Amino acid sequence: MESVFVLVVVGLTSAGAYVLGTAGLGFSRSGIRLALGKTCECVGLMLVFGVLNLAVATCTILAMRSVSGRFVSLYIASDTTFLMLSWLQALTFQAWREGSHQRHTSESRDSKLLHREP
Amino acid sequence: MSGWRFIRGLGIVTVVAFLLVCFTPLPNLLNRWTGVSAQLQPAAAIVVLGGGTEGVGVLSTSSLRRTVHGITLFQRGFAPLLALSGPASQPPGRGEAEVRAELARLFGVSPAAIVTETTARTTRAEAACMAALLHPKGVSKILLVTGYAHMARARRLFEKVGFTVQPAPVDDLSEASKPEARWGLMRPLAQEFLARTYYRVAGYL
């Protein structure tokens, strides 16, 4: 029952956002496919950062144990804040990539225009 | 470009996995598959494994549930000895085992029937320390109290140090029905999966 409720609410707000985007804000209908692809890339990046953080945290804890001789719990590596921070890392990295790509595209366009001038 | 296609594929797999975890009974099936059911029989001692504290002298939910389950088994006459584990706190104060022992006394368990172990910080160390503490008392058959997902690893480690283990998990076959509860159930399962992998790689299991 709770599962259906959550899915229905999210479905309704998603449909509302689609209507607002297409009718109110003039977004292209075909752009939603591209946006979903970008979202999946971001989620994939989050997973990569998550695994990387887990691996680095585990290695650091094991190194601290062997170097200092003090006990440090490996459970710290599974702290849920790592998940949220991995998400932020992924969002930032994706935005950086998009920004660099756009800048590179506009710079090459400007360069072409300059070369055309007599 | 193919690298980004791979990352996009990873993202699709992650989204599908998230939906399966939150909106299907998959976590319950995984929980049942990886856990060990209770086999309650009389034993020489009830061993309650540590579950952590949240600040000095405050038991975590997991620790409290394990303690209450151990006390309940003791009161029902399953064993004459209640062995409580939990490391001393940092900074110094009342450690987990001491708080648990106090709780057991409040519930009417005789102080003479309570044994505490305050040095072990891992499941492997708990098995070794409990063996050093209980074997001289002639204890070999124990009722082991810990989390359902944690039981398989803990049981194997206690058997390796010479105990005959009867599992007494605290959360037997918990059926998570809400999306948040299913998501919450996946965390200890994933944690235990990583812990088992680490113990196997290190040669502890």
Describe the structure.
The complex is a heterodimer of chains A (118) and B (205). By secondary structure, chain A is mostly helical. Chain A has helices at residues 2-24, 31-68, 81-116. Chain A has one domain (2-116). Chain A contains three helices and no strands. The longest helix of chain A is centred in the middle third of the chain and has 38 residues, at 31-68. The N and C termini of chain A lie far apart (71 Å). The relative contact order of chain A is 0.07. The radius of gyration of chain B is 19 Å and the shape is elongated. The mean pLDDT of chain B is 92. Chain A binds chain B through residues 2-3, 6-7, 37, 39-48, 54, 58, 71, 73-75, 78, 80, and chain B through 4, 6-12, 14-15, 22-23, 121, 177-179, 187, 190-191, 194-195, 198.
CATH topology grouping of the largest domain in chain B: Rossmann fold
User: What is the CA-atom radius of gyration of chain A, in angstroms?
Assistant: 22 Å
Low-confidence stretches of chain B: none
The number of distinct structural domains of chain A comes to 1
Q: Please identify the oligomeric state.
A: heterodimer
Helix-strand pattern of chain A: HHH
Round the mean pLDDT of chain A to the nearest integer and report it: 90
Instruction: Using the alpha-carbon principal axes, give the shape of chain B.
Output: elongated
Helix content of chain B: 40-55%
Q: Work out the strand percent of chain B.
A: 5-15%
**Briefly, what CATH class of the largest domain in chain B?**
Alpha Beta
Number of helices of chain B: 7
Reading the helices and strands of chain B in chain order gives: HHEHEHEHEHEH
Instruction: Give the N-terminus to C-terminus distance of chain B in angstroms.
Output: 42 Å
Helix content of chain A: over 70%
